[in-house]
Amino acid sequence: MRDRKILNKKVTLSILAVNLNYRNLKLDTKLVKEFENICRNIGLQSISLGARWRTCGFYEKLNYKPSLLVQVYDFVRVEEIRKNNLCGFKELKSYQGETYGFIMYEVTFIMGDYIKYFENKIPTAMVQYIFTKKLQN
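The chain above was modelled as a monomer; its predicted structure follows.
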């Protein structure tokens, strides 16, 4: 990666997992911190990742900032998400394609009820938290 030109200065981590036999050894924290160091060394400025509900606290402890991603499929439009944003979340970005769309909202804290709310109100909605961290050099 060092020889490639880095265009957008950010990376998205798709999956991070530690084998059950090694979960109490703090390997998850070491792995994330080493990944952050590698990213800094090659000039990246931001890391984003999706997280399952049970891991949200882990990323908060590592100073990752949460946002709420609400995705819709099968011709359900992002307008349906906006109509159901009764919490007044600030919209960070959105996309609407022919059969898929999403809105990412700014949130100040994480709650499982947000996920349940949107998934119960909107047909085909899939909701998760996205965590982002700006890297300092």
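The longest helix spans residues 27-41.
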